[in-house]
Design a protein that fits this description.
By secondary structure, this protein is an alpha+beta fold. It has 9 helices and 5 strands; from the N terminus they run ααααααβββααββα. It folds into 2 domains: 3-94 and 195-205, Ribosomal Protein S4 Delta 41, Chain A, domain 1; 98-186, Structural Genomics Hypothetical 15.5 Kd Protein In mrcA-pckA Intergenic Region, Chain A, CATH 3.10.290. It has helices at residues 3-17, 49-64, 68-81, 87-96, 99-105, 112-120, 148-152, 154-161, 199-205; strands at residues 124-126, 129-131, 143-146, 171-176, 179-184. A 5-stranded antiparallel sheet has the order 2-1-3-5-4. A hairpin with a 2-residue loop joins strand 1 and strand 2 (129-131). Helix 2 crosses helix 9 (199-205), helix 3 (68-81) crosses helix 4 and helix 5 (99-105) packs across helix 6 (112-120).
Length: 209
C-alpha cells in the first residue's frame, strides 16, 4: 500500500469515527469533510446502540495501534486489578504508560505506528537501556531518550519538524548535551487521553469480557 493510499485510509477512519485520532498521524481529517465517508452534508446514518459502543472501542484500537485480542487482554487485566474509580480509567492509564505511546507523546515520532517502529528498531532507551517491545510500561521516574540512530531517523526528524502533540503533565522534556530526553514525573491521569472519549460506552461494550 502506498503512502498516499495509507494516508487516505487514515482520513477515512477518523471521519467514520467522527473524531481526530492523533495516533494515526494525519491531522485535519474532519476540517473539510466533517461527516462519515460515503455521506454528504449533514445526513448521517442512524447507528444502533451496539454500533455506537463499537465505534468508541475502535477509537482506542486505532489511536493506540492495537489488535482486538490485545485490547481484550488489557480489558481483562484492568477488570481484575484496577485501583482507580473504574476499570476503564485503569485501562487508559495502562495504555498511556506504554513506551510506544510515551515516545509519540514526547513528539519523538509523528504517529503511533512510527513510534512502534522506532522501539522495535532499538532506537529507544529507558534509563539508558535499549527497549525493543512497544508494550513495555514506563514507570514514574523513568528517563526516556533516543539512541544516536534514533535521533538521526526520519521518524524523529519528521516529528521534530512538525510536532503533533503537546506533552501531557505527566511527562517533562529536557535537553542533555543538545539532545532531547523525557522523564515520566508521575502516573498518567485518565483525562490525559488525547481525544474525545466516552468510557461508559466502552464499559457497556465489554461488559461480558
Amino acid at each position: 500500500m502506498s503512502k498516499a493510499t495509507m494516508g487516505r485510509a487514515r482520513f477515512k477512519i477518523q471521519r467514520r469515527l467522527g473524531v481526530e485520532l492523533p495516533g494515526l498521524g494525519k491531522a485535519g481529517a474532519l476540517e473539510r469533510k466533517p461527516y462519515p465517508p460515503g455521506q454528504h452534508g449533514s445526513k448521517r446514518k442512524k447507528l444502533s446502540d451496539y454500533s455506537i459502543r463499537m465505534l468508541e472501542k475502535q477509537k482506542i484500537i486505532f489511536h493506540y495501534g492495537l489488535r482486538e485480542a490485545q485490547l481484550r487482554h488489557y480489558v481483562r487485566r484492568a477488570k481484575r486489578s484496577h485501583e482507580e474509580k473504574s476499570w476503564v480509567d485503569s485501562l487508559v492509564m495502562t495504555l498511556e504508560r506504554r513506551i510506544d505511546n510515551i515516545v509519540f507523546r514526547l513528539n519523538f515520532a509523528p504517529s503511533m505506528a512510527a513510534a512502534k517502529q522506532m522501539v522495535r528498531h532499538g532506537h529507544v532507551l529507558v534509563n539508558g537501556k535499549k527497549i525493543t517491545m512497544p508494550g513495555v510500561p514506563v514507570k514514574a521516574g523513568d528517563k526516556i531518550s533516543l539512541t544516536v540512530k534514533g535521533l538521526q531517523s526520519g521518524n524523529y526528524l519528521q516529528a521534530k519538524a512538525r510536532p503533533r502533540m503537546v506533552s501531557p503533565s505527566f511527562l517533562v522534556k529536557n535537553t542533555e548535551s543538545g539532545h532531547e530526553a523525557g522523564v515520566m514525573v508521575s502516573k498518567p491521569d485518565p483525562k490525559d487521553i488525547p481525544f474525545q472519549f466516552d468510557g461508559q460506552l466502552l464499559t457497556e461494550y465489554y461488559w461480558k469480557v
